[in-house]
């Protein structure tokens, strides 16, 4: 894997990244990267991805998503992301996490506030905060440290809220002819995000017909017993070890007939090869529970075929919204209430503007987020008069219709 900084800088634009920090510890072998994309609104917020395949470019792309996600959610955070290149199950994860925390400590928490991501848990956040010496260093900590662990399912809860409301609104607009309670759902990835998405959708009455993880896929057109599967996985550990089910290859998830497809695994899993499979399987709606799960080419293929794609930085903001509540000392109940409120507001806003402007949900959401970040960037430079002039010229539909959610909680 190349660690060339130029791979990242080739993607630099007017928004960032502000800093790209490469770190290495010869004692442990830890290799890592921190990308602080944009801090105009506040310190960069983003998880630490701990996988053997993570790359600097992937970390940058994830950091950029966090910039838009936090701005769209009206949170006082910018965007950032950390990456540790290794298998957390094969290395001394505590030593590696301590080493990474020590290396990036100068940036924490004023420029970067960490959280969990793929390959990291609340216990890793406990190690990170202890090594930095500041409980504000990260969110997603154990409850004993005043944290609101992501293991409570905050991200998955937000995905379920977004899925339910999206289907109801698209039915109302006549964009999709599908009773939400008759919709079938397939979920790719059954870790924290995928499993809790399934749990909350199941509680709402949705029929989950297929799930997959890295080991395999299970499918039942009549619907899966999600509570039972979640209990069995606590012992089995992976789908391939579930003895009562027929196990298919993990790739089958793209072929099963479903109305709603929810990618909740790694990046770029919906691509030019898998997108046509979803279309053939009758998918009407893609809800991006994972970060950057769909390539630009694949999204174009889906949209041209009439498939709706609701982007990650709208759908999976539950995690960072919950992190914000933890950051300001709130409770678990406050976190779930705020997630429900903010994601509902954004889904309604974006889909309403889509109907009025014939733009994609991603384009609408990005324009809203960019407007907020641009305003903060101008004000940070002290260009108050320039900012006023800029927004006097930019009195667009977005500015009139987008509420400032920074200090908003819920009704």
From TrEMBL:
NAD(+) binds at residues 155, 192. Substrate binds at residues 45, 69, 323. InterPro entries: Aminoacid_DH-like_N_sf, Glu/Leu/Phe/Val/Trp_DH, Glu/Leu/Phe/Val/Trp_DH_C, Glu/Leu/Phe/Val/Trp_DH_dimer, Glu/Leu/Phe/Val_DH_AS, Glu_DH, NAD(P)-bd_dom_sf, NAD_bind_Glu_DH. Residues 147-381 form the Glutamate/phenylalanine/leucine/valine/L-tryptophan dehydrogenase C-terminal domain. Pfam families: ELFV_dehydrog, ELFV_dehydrog_N. GO terms for biological process: L-glutamate catabolic process. The keyword Oxidoreductase applies. It comes from the Archaea. GO terms for molecular function: glutamate dehydrogenase (NAD+) activity; nucleotide binding. Keywords: NAD, Nucleotide-binding, Oxidoreductase. The keyword Nucleotide-binding applies. The record marks 117 as: Important for catalysis. SUPFAM superfamilies: Aminoacid dehydrogenase-like, N-terminal domain (SSF53223), NAD(P)-binding Rossmann-fold domains (SSF51735). The active site is at residue 81. Transmembrane segments: none annotated. Belongs to the Glu/Leu/Phe/Val dehydrogenases family. PANTHER family: GLUTAMATE DEHYDROGENASE, GLUTAMATE DEHYDROGENASE 1, MITOCHONDRIAL. Homohexamer. This is Glutamate dehydrogenase. It comes from Caldiarchaeum subterraneum. The lineage of its organism: Archaea, Nitrososphaerota, Candidatus Caldarchaeales, Candidatus Caldarchaeaceae, Candidatus Caldarchaeum.
């Amino acid at each position: 894997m190349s660690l060339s900084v130029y791979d990242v800088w080739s993607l630099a634009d007017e928004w960032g990244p502000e800093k790209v920090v490469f770190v290495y510890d010869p004692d442990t072998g830890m290799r890592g990267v921190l990308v602080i994309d944009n801090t105009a609104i506040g310190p960069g917020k983003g998880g630490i991805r701990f996988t053997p395949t993570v790359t600097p470019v992937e970390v940058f792309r994830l950091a950029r998503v966090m910039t838009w996600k936090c701005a769209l959610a009206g949170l006082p955070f910018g965007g950032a992301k950390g990456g540790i290149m290794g298998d957390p199950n094969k290395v001394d994860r505590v030593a590696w996490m301590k080493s990474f925390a020590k290396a990036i400590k100068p940036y924490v928490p004023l420029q970067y506030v960490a959280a969990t991501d793929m390959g990291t848990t609340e216990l890793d956040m406990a190690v990170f905060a202890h090594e930095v010496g500041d409980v504000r260093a990260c969110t997603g900590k154990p409850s004993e440290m005043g944290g609101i662990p992501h293991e409570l399912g905050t991200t998955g809860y937000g995905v379920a809220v977004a899925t339910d409301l999206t289907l109801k609104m698209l039915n109302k607009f006549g964009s999709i002819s599908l009773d939400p309670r008759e919709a079938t759902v397939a979920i790719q990835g059954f870790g924290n995000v995928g499993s809790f998405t399934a749990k909350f959708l199941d509680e709402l009455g949705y029929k989950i017909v297929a799930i997959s993880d890295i080991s395999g896929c299970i499918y039942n057109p009549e619907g899966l017993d999600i509570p039972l599967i979640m209990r069995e996985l606590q012992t089995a550990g992976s789908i391939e070890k579930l003895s009562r089910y027929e196990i298919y290859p993990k790739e089958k998830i793209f072929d099963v007939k479903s109305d709603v497809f929810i990618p909740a695994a790694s990046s770029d899993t919906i691509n030019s090869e898998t997108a046509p499979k979803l279309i053939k399987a009758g998918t009407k709606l893609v809800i991006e529970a994972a970060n950057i799960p769909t390539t630009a080419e694949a999204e174009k293929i889906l949209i041209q075929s009439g498939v709706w794609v609701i982007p990650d930085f709208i759908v999976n903001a539950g995690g960072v919204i919950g992190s914000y509540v933890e950051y300001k000392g709130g409770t678990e109940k406050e976190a779930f209430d705020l997630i429900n409120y903010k994601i509902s507001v954004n889904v309604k806003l974006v889909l309403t503007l889509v109907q009025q402007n014939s733009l994609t949900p991603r384009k609408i959401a990005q324009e809203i987020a960019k407007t907020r970040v641009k305003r903060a960037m101008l004000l940070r430079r002290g260009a108050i008069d320039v900012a006023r002039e800029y927004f006097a010229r930019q009195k667009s539909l977005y500015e009139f219709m987008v509420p400032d959610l920074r200090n908003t909680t819920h009704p």
